[in-house]
Amino acid sequence: MLYEIYKWHGLGNVRVCYTIHNFKHQGIGGTDILWATGLNREAYYFEYDRLRDNFNPFVLNFMKGGIVYSNHVTTVSPHHAWEAHMGEFGYGLGHTLHMHQHKFSGVLNGIDYDVWNPEVDHYIPYEFSKDDLKQKALNKKALRDRLWLQHGDKPLIAYIGRLDDQKGVHLVHHAIYYALQRDAQFVLLGSPTEAKIASWFWHEKNFLNDNPDVHLELGFNEELSHLIYAGADMIIVPSNFEPCGLTQMIGLRYGTVPIVRGVGGLVNTVFDRDYDQTHPLEERNGYVFYQTDYQALESAMDRAIGLWYHYPEEFETLQIQGMNYDYSWNHPGEDYIAIYEHIRHK
C-alpha cells in the first residue's frame, strides 16, 4: 500500500526494511483483501512478480509482497538467509528471494545483556564472571538444592525451550536418557505445544520423578530459567530448524557449553571445539552435530561429557572462550544502522 497508494500522498520518501523471522508463516489471502484495502486492481496484483503465490495462482501471498516491495529484506541470521534462499526453509519463496537477492541478507539477533548477564543477574544467588567460575559452581549447587537433585561429581546438562517438532523434541527426549546413561544429570524446563507432546512428557516426568539425577519442569518459569543457565554445565539445542536461536547465546554468556545441531543461527554462533575449520582452537565455544538421528546427538554429547570428566581444565577453558563472545545487540545494531543508511532517501 505504501508504494502503490501512499507514496502519491506525501510518503514518497519513506523506506522499508522488512525482517522475517520464520518463512513458514506467510499469510495467504484473496481478492477480498485487495478491495478491502483499496488496492483493487486484481489482474495487476496477481502478476507473478508482485503478490501472486509462487505455487497457487489463485491466492495472494503477503510475505511475498513484503519481499517484493521492501527496500531491504533481512532474516535473523546469515546461515538462515542461505537456507531460505537456497534450501527448504524458504517454504516456497526461494525463487522470490533469488530474484531479490541484491536486497536480502541475514543479521543475527542479539540478547539483552542487561537481562542476561551473570555479573548482574538478580535472579541467581551467586553472580559471577569468566574470571571467577567458582561462583558458577555455587549456582550449580543451588540449582540441585532447588530441584532435589543429588550432589556429586557429575556434569549437569540442561534443555530450556518449547517442546515441539521445530525444537527437535525427539532428540530432547533421547538426550535425557542418554545423559543418565553417561552418568550425567539432566534438567529440562520446557513448554509442550501439543497435547500429545504434553502427555508424553508428563508421563516421563512421573516415571522419572524419584530419579535423583533428573528433573523435568513442564511450563515456563523466568526465574528458574536464569538459575538453570547459571548452574548447568552444558545446554542442548537440537533443533530441526532454528532461524536464529537465543538459547545458545544465553548459554555462552553464562559459561554453559552449548551442544547444538548445525542449522540456522546455531551455525553462526557455535563453533565446534574439535572439528570447526573456520576458527582457531582458542575461538571455539561448543559442540555441533548435523544429522537428526540419535547417533549424531550422542556423538556430540559424548565429546562434551568426556571433556568434562577427563579434561576439566580444558572444559573450563571452553566455558571461558564462550563467555568471551559478544552476542548482545551491539553488532546487529551496527548492521541495521548500515542497512538503514544504505536504503534511506538521499
List the helices and strands and how they pair.
Blueprint: E1 17-20, E2 28-29, H1 31-37, H2 42-45, E3 60-61, H3 62-69, E4 72-75, H4 78-86, H5 94-99, E5 104-106, H6 134-147, E6 156-163, H7 169-181, E7 185-192, H8 195-207, E8 214-218, H9 222-231, E9 234-237, H10 247-253, E10 257-261, H11 264-269, E11 287-289, H12 294-310, H13 312-323, H14 330-343
Parallel strand pairs: 1-4, 4-5, 6-7, 6-9, 7-8, 9-10, 10-11
Antiparallel strand pairs: 2-3
Characterize the structure shown.
The protein is an alpha/beta fold and about 350 residues long. The protein has two domains: about 5-105, Glycogen Phosphorylase B (Rossmann fold); about 135-325, Glycogen Phosphorylase B (Rossmann fold, 3-Layer(aba) Sandwich), CATH 3.40.50. Helix content is about 40%, strand content about 15%. The chain is built from 14 helices and eleven strands. It has helices at about 30-35, 40-45, 60-70, 80-85, 95-100, 135-145, 170-180, 195-205, 220-230, 245-255, 265-270, 295-310, 310-325, 330-345; strands at about 15-20, 30, 60, 70-75, 105, 155-165, 185-190, 215-220, 235, 255-260, 285-290. The strands form three sheets. Strands 8-7-6-9-10-11 form a six-stranded parallel sheet, sandwiched between helices. The protein has a three-stranded parallel sheet with strand order 1-4-5. It has a two-stranded antiparallel ribbon with strand order 2-3. Helix 6 (about 135-145) packs across helix 9 (about 220-230) and helix 12 (about 295-310) crosses helix 13 (about 310-325). The two termini are about 20 Å apart.
